[in-house]
Design brief:
The protein is built from 6 helices and 7 strands. The protein has helices at about 1-15, 30-40, 90-95, 110-115, 135-150, 185-190; strands spanning about 40-50, 60-65, 80-85, 100-105, 125-135, 165-175, 185. Its main location: secreted.
Amino acid sequence: MARLRLLCLAAAALLLAAGGGAIPPPEEAARMARFVLHNCDWGALATLSAQEGLRGQPFANIFSLSDGPPGPLSGSGVPYLYLTDMEISVQDLEINSNASLTVSLAQTPYCKKHKYDPQNPLCAHIIFCGSIVKVNDSEAGLAKKALFSRHPEMESWPKDHNWFFAKFNITNIWVLDYFGGLKIVTPEEYYSVKP
């Protein structure tokens, strides 16, 4: 009976409370990256500051994001953002579009449920490097659906702020989801799997 209980506890540890899907095993780093991004509603975007007094210094800021509507297997893997030129980090991106984006399961119930500190590798987080680009007209509908399905408040944000849809163009991916250090995932590996 005790062995059955341990097996049940181990199986339960593999379930993510937020999304209802099973968290990928550590040996599937590309799937883990897709899974974490899809289950996160926001991330920390780091730019190189173009602001007076901070020029050239790293500058991190929180942004809402989405790779698609909630639900299993509905994510595209593309981090979409809703931006305005009035935002300080967007002003940085106008000078240098390179950035990094970090997303973590710490923002979901998963890590608290398992009593994982956000810095614990078992509380998986993903670091993306790349650049921010405005989406073209053919992709704007997809970005809008992805973002407004998770962040409905966005639709009512002031129109005079000239909001636009953008995406994080991924060039490098690092996954920290287990002990032993970061795992490198190529964009090709990342986009070839489902979360």
